[in-house]
Design brief:
The protein has 15 helices and eleven strands. By secondary structure, the chain is α/β, with parallel strands linked by helices. The chain has an eleven-stranded mixed sheet, sandwiched between helices.
Length: 471
């Protein structure tokens, strides 16, 4: 599959048409997706949109919207009017969205064609896409391994070459970690840069929608289309909210060395160190930094996130939409609906969240976690006075085998480098930094670049020079 930029040029020149590309994508889904299971639904009727785009290019050429005729895959927790939006949960198995999410409306206005809804961990709870109520997704690079999660279906769709880009959501690394496991670019924006209107909420103070692509340039293009203030989401920000974040020729990169000593795969660490050395050789400044509060992010996240999950998922009670199990009385309906509709991981997080919000424990757990969060933001503000960007591996390991991480705590540790970013609300970009060999197969691993609030453009500028130009 070509990049968005390449497809656009071929459409304008007439070398390819949107209809041809759409048909090729459908053929690839038929040929490959029975094994990988990236998609929960395929929108074959969208071919009429591809035909209309083909006509538009013949008449108007370059004078067309920037994504006209570009096929995109959409994570199943992002609402597309008239399409099933299940969030990979039985409780929403037959829920049809009644409106477009803001990101969908903006992509649609730019001419994008939505080719299907992708698989995910149920309600975005997981890091492997093994927690879907409709079956797991496999990594196209090694089908015995996971694609990451929770946006694993979107990552797999791009890694298979079916689409040039896909939309995911990132609550604690759910775009960046699948990007790392599948050899892609994944971007998590500054909190509030992209509207959450029309996203099925997991953690409202953490969730952000973003792209999975093969180049940083494509990620930047999609972000430029979906970002911006939205009257339907009061948490959205304007470009000047955080002031100007300078773009430079040479940067000072901070590496939290102490943070990289516990539980990280030796090959991942060696590849990361080589990447850092290459930055220094290219004339950038690399310094060691201390982030003692940032390193506590995993513990704080797994208090804050379940608390928000408990609140957000209380609406799924069998009364208004989605699954409704009959019962003898109202309480019985609630209990049976939620017991039948939610999977194991969702129930685990609801219970944990309810516990930390309960009387007598709120201050001891949730209050302290929010205090850690506030101190983390203050810590980052100080660090960003001396460095431009913070570097870590995206994940501590390459893609792991399906079924390998049965212990929930071991699975949660996969998020160690990504969740602090969501707690702080800063932007982060992941792209491939190399590969490691496992059982004779080269598996990609990603590097994570973290910028201060509002530093999204800085990350794109760095990524295009460091990754796109050597790709």
């Amino acid at each position: 599959m070509y990049t968005i930029t390449e497809l656009r040029k071929k459409y304008i020149s007439g070398e390819l048409t949107p209809t041809e590309v759409f048909d090729t994508a459908l053929a690839a889904i038929t040929a490959k997706d029975a094994e990988i299971h990236a998609f929960l639904a395929v929108f074959t009727d969208a071919r009429s949109e591809a035909e209309a785009a083909t006509v538009a290019y013949r008449k108007q050429g370059a004078d067309t919207p920037p994504l006209l005729g570009i096929p995109l895959a959409i994570k199943s927790n992002i609402l597309i009017k008239g399409r099933i939006a299940s969030a990979a949960s039985k409780i929403l198995e037959n829920y049809t969205a009644t409106y477009d999410a803001t990101v969908i409306a903006r992509l649609r206005a730019a001419g994008a064609i939505f080719i299907g809804a992708t698989n995910m961990d149920e309600f975005a709870m997981g890091g492997s896409t093994e927690n879907s109520a409709f079956g797991l997704t496999r990594n196209p690079l090694d089908p015995s391994r996971v694609p990451g999660g929770s946006s694993g279906g979107s990552a797999a769709a791009v890694a298979m070459g079916i689409v040039p880009a896909a939309m995911g959501t990132d609550t604690g690394g759910s775009i960046r970690q699948p990007a790392s496991f599948c050899g892609l670019v994944g971007f998590k924006p500054t909190y509030g840069a992209v509207s959450r209107f029309g996203l099925i909420a997991m953690g409202s103070s953490l969730d952000q929608a973003g792209p999975l692509t093969t180049t940083v340039e494509d990620a930047e293009l999609i972000h430029s289309i979906i970002s911006g203030a939205d009257e339907y989401d009061a948490t959205t920000i304007t470009p000047d909210t955080y002031g100007d974040v300078a773009i430079k020729e040479k940067y000072t990169f901070g590496v939290p060395r102490q943070f990289l000593t516990d539980g990280i795969d030796a090959d991942v660490l060696a590849t990361f160190n080589a990447h850092v050395e290459a930055l220094a050789a290219a004339g950038h400044t690399v310094v060691d930094i201390d982030l003692p509060i940032f390193e506590k992010g995993l513990a704080a996240y797994y208090i804050v996130m379940p608390a928000e999950v408990s609140s957000n998922l209380a609406r799924f009670d069998g009364m208004r939409y989605g699954l409704s199990s009959s019962g003898d009385n109202l309480l019985d309906v609630y209990q049976k609906t939620r017991a039948n509709g939610f999977g194991k991981e969702v129930k685990r997080r609801i219970l944990l969240g309810t516990y930390v919000l309960s009387s007598g424990y709120y201050d001891a757990f949730y209050g302290k976690a929010e205090l850690v969060r506030a101190k983390m933001r203050a810590e980052l503000r100080e660090v960003f006075k001396t460095v431009d960007v913070i570097l870590t591996p995206t994940a501590p390991t390459p893609a792991f085998k399906i079924g390998e991480q049965e212990d929930p705590l071991a699975m949660y540790r996969q998020d160690i480098f990504t969740v602090p970013v969501n707690l702080a609300g800063v932007p982060a970009l992941s792209f491939p930094m190399g590969t490691v060999v496992r059982e004779g197969i080269e598996l990609p691993i990603g590097v994570q670049y973290i910028a201060p609030h509002g530093g999204d453009a800085r990350l794109f500028s760095i990524g295009k020079k460091i990754y796109d130009e050597r790709r």
